[in-house]
Amino acid sequence: GENVEQHPSTLSVQEGDSAVIKCTYSDSASNYFPWYKQELGKGPQLIIDIRSNVGEKKDQRIAVTLNKTAKHFSLHITETQPEDSAVYFCAASGGGFQKLVFGTGTRLLVSP
Amino acid sequence: EADIYQTPRYLVIGTGKKITLECSQTMGHDKMYWYQQDPGMELHLIHYSYGVNSTEKGDLSSESTVSRIRTEHFPLTLESARPSHTSQYLCASTPTDRVGEKLFFGSGTQLSVL
């Protein structure tokens, strides 16, 4: 089955800096890679996703890149703000949510 | 904001008690899921349902059971709670199972078994 590794487990940055979170996956059949943000006391929310036929996707200050050959994908947050502080999860799936495997999460802390 | 609700928000109970965690959604979604979230943050799928009268076990073995009698309601039951069941339980739903569909999560139930 799919295995997703996520690094780092914690990340502290100053406001305005960039943050990068990296994930690797094991199943070459995986073709969908979402990122979820979980704020304290809330359930995760989808913030961006990418499919295997695309190498990069941007949405304002966040971007995701995918390297299918190396089987890794990354989340990039530019101009970080205190409200970006949360736990971020990557995930990978080859078909259906019953096959969606989450990474172990990254706790991002943005200091003013 | 997602219209998916979980109750109770927090639950502290003694060993051996029977408990039911409630999950309801008002979006008419057919697909519903229960995830268990470790204190170390990992999310593991424990149950899912494709619609009324459909329930399946997820990748992580769980002693809990679920039912789906109505589209909007997907409760999770533990017949005899133990300290090893202490965890955060998250309910989620999607309108379809197509690639690229978004998972809508509830705010979770934090269960502590003493």
Note down, in words, how this protein is organized.
The complex is a heterodimer of chains A (112) and B (114). Chain A has 112 residues and is mostly beta strands. Chain A is 0% helix and 54% strand. In chain A, strands 2, 4, 5, 9, 10 and 11 form a 6-stranded mixed beta sheet that branches. Chain A is globular and about 40 Å long. Chain A starts with a strand and ends with a strand. With 114 residues, chain B is mostly beta strands. In chain B, strands 2, 4, 5, 6, 9, 10 and 11 form a 7-stranded mixed beta sheet that branches. The N and C termini of chain B lie far apart (34 Å). The mean pLDDT of chain B is 92. Classes of the chains: A mainly beta (112), B mainly beta (114). At the A-B interface, strand 4, strand 5 and strand 10 of A face strand 5 and strand 9 of B.
Give a quick account of the main beta sheet of chain B: strands, pairing sense, barrel closure. Answer: 7 strands, mixed
- Our count of helices of chain A gives 0
Radius of gyration of chain A over alpha carbons? 13 Å
Which segments of chain B are poorly predicted (pLDDT under 50) over 5 or more consecutive residues? Answer: none
User: Would you tell me the structural class of the helices and strands of chain A?
Assistant: mainly beta
Largest sheet of chain A: 6 strands, mixed
Most extensive interface, chain pair and sizes: A-B, 26 and 27 residues
**Overall pLDDT of chain A, averaged?**
94
SSE run of chain B: EEEEEEEEEEE
Q: N-to-C terminal Cα separation of chain A, in Å?
A: 41 Å
Structural class of chain B: mainly beta
Total number of beta strands of chain B = 11
Q: Give the uncertain stretches of chain A in residue-range form.
A: none
**What portion of residues of chain B belong to β-strands?**
over 45%
SS elements, strand count of chain A: 11
Helicity of chain A, as a percent range: under 10%
Count of DSSP helices of chain B? 0
Query: What average pLDDT do the residues of chain B reach?
Result: 92
Assembly context of the chains: heterodimer
